[in-house]
Amino acid sequence: MSAVLSKADVMVSAEELISVRHEVDIAPAGIAGFAAIMADGETRELSPELSRIIARVIRTLALNGSVTVGSLPDELTSNTAAEVMGVSRPTLLKMAKAGDIDSFKVGSHTRFKRDDVMNLKAKREVARKAAMMDLLEIRDEIENHK
C-alpha cells in the first residue's frame, strides 16, 4: 500500500485572510456548524464531521496564514511517513529503531500508523517551538548584559 500526497493549492488574498481572521475573532466560543447555499437557493446544513473539518481549516488559516488539507490512509509506507514528518526516510527508520515511533513490517517493508506519525510530528513541533523560545530568551539575556 503506497500513498501519494497530492496537492491542489487554494490561495487566499490578503483581504480574504483578514476576513477569515475577523470571523474567528468574533466567534470566540467556536463555530458549531456550517450550512451551504445550493445553486437552487436551498440552504443545506453540513454534517457535523464536515463542519468540524471546515472549522479547523478556518482556525488554522486564521492563526497561521496558511493551511494544508489532505487525507492519509491508516497505514503509511516509510517514504510517505517520512514526507509527512519532513525528514528523510533513513532518519525516520533510525527514529523507529531508537523507539521514538512504533513501526511494523508487512513482508520486508516497514509501515507506520498514521496516528503515530501525526503524534510524533506534533511532539517534534512543540519541542522545536520550545527550543526557539529558549534561544530567544538567551539572546535577550545576552543583549541585556551588554
TrEMBL record:
What InterPro entries would the database entry show?
Answer: DNA-bd_dom_put_sf, HTH_17, SinI_DNA-bd
Instruction: Give the highest taxon in the source lineage.
Output: Bacteria
A GO molecular-function descriptor: DNA binding
Task: Please state every residue range assigned to the domain named Helix-turn-helix.
Answer: 76-123
Q: What is this protein called?
A: Helix-turn-helix domain-containing protein
Organism, by scientific name, is: Glutamicibacter halophytocola
Q: Which taxonomic lineage does the organism of this UniProt entry have?
A: Bacteria, Bacillati, Actinomycetota, Actinomycetes, Micrococcales
